[in-house]
Design brief:
The protein has 2 domains: 34 residues; 100 residues, no CATH class. The chain is built from 6 helices and no strands. It is elongated. This is LTXXQ motif family protein.
Length: 156
């Protein structure tokens, strides 16, 4: 009987040691799931842009024949909008020189984005292009929205 009790305690301890980490992970996952709108999950700008582009792909109705041009465009846009690496230039002591070096380092990314956009325009239908323009931040919908007239007198 004594051996059975010791075996049961050892088995229970082993089971607890194995299941405790699983329970902690489940609790963490539940905490993340229940974060809700008050506690947004941290997200990098690149991931947020990729999520926007994935939604735009569905919104635009990208067909299989358009997929390659869409992927090239998306990758070029993400690469272009990534912040430049902090590479101090020993020769550039003026802020304006550092800015110019940063622009030159990004020039190839800008050209890749322009090439990707041109290729994408070549495969999209006119209505898809219009939708893409409306869905872009700062796109056509942002340009057509008129800002409130701040100089207009308020009604009394």
């Amino acid at each position: 009987m004594k051996t059975f009790a010791i075996s049961a305690i050892v088995a229970a301890a082993a089971l607890g040691a194995v299941t405790a980490p699983v329970a902690v992970q489940a609790q963490r996952a539940e905490t993340i799931r229940s974060a809700g709108p008050d506690m947004p999950l941290p997200q990098s700008p690149g991931i947020a842009l990729a999520a926007h582009l994935a939604a735009a792909q569905v919104y635009l109705g990208i067909a299989p024949a358009q997929q390659e041009a869409w992927q090239i465009y998306c990758q070029a846009l993400i690469a272009f909008l990534e912040p430049p690496p902090a590479e101090p230039d020993a020769k550039a002591s003026l802020h304006s020189e550092r800015m110019a070096h940063d622009v030159l380092r990004r020039a190839d990314k800008a050209q890749a984005l322009l090439d990707g956009a041109a290729a994408l325009r070549g495969v999209l239908e006119p209505d898809q292009i219009a939708r893409l323009e409306r869905s872009e931040p700062g796109g056509a919908s942002a340009r057509t929205t008129t800002p409130p007239n701040l100089n207009k007198p308020k009604p009394e």
